[in-house]
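thought: fold this chain, then report.
action: predict
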Amino acid sequence: MHIFELEENKATPFTFTFTPITGKKGELLPIKFVSVYNPSFIPDMKVTASYGGYQTILEAGGEVFFNKDTEQWAVPLSSKQAGLLNVRQSTERVTQELLVSHGRSEKIAIETLDSKVFSELYVDGLIRHDNLKVENSGLLQITFKLFGHPGVSYRNTIYLNHKPLESQDGVSFPMALTKGNLEVLSAEINLDQLGDFSTFYVVSVPLNAEDFYDDVIILEKTPSLLLYKGAGI
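observation:
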């Protein structure tokens, strides 16, 4: 996570250097850059209990031409953390109740799911907003649901304090959306590893957005959720 301090009314040029981990000689592949607004902000449960507009995302895209094959590259241990347990994936049917719950601001019909993508994040069985007080130890139940545009494939990663949570199956989990269904990712988080205040969210990266150029297929991020313990108040 790179943090930039910006001066008002002044352009801030920078160069972004990275090592590709996919791509073969002669290929022209899309690349997406995603920025997070004020990633270092975290509610203190005294002055504020919400992230407000902070930690929303802005996506920009481009293309990279490969002059040579990429090499295998291991993800540094410093950029991920253990603690994701009992990962399970399943498929459920979209219900009318689900459409109604997502249609508070505008009505959503079953046809809407042919071109748009929606997600839900449940923590201990409920959709949480802004913050959640958790126990000092034990397991926290996480359920993430993704549904909508048939044919779009995603890889989903669960983040804690801006670092991926890793399970024995890896750090990201695939989902291929199909008509009338929602894909479900369930897991548990070991609360022993949490500090007094932790930022939690899920990121879903589309793998084949370019196949649907008539639609807007972008990276999805759930709103950041503060997980806090009683000792932190």
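thought: worth noting. The chain has a mean pLDDT of 89.
final: tokens above.
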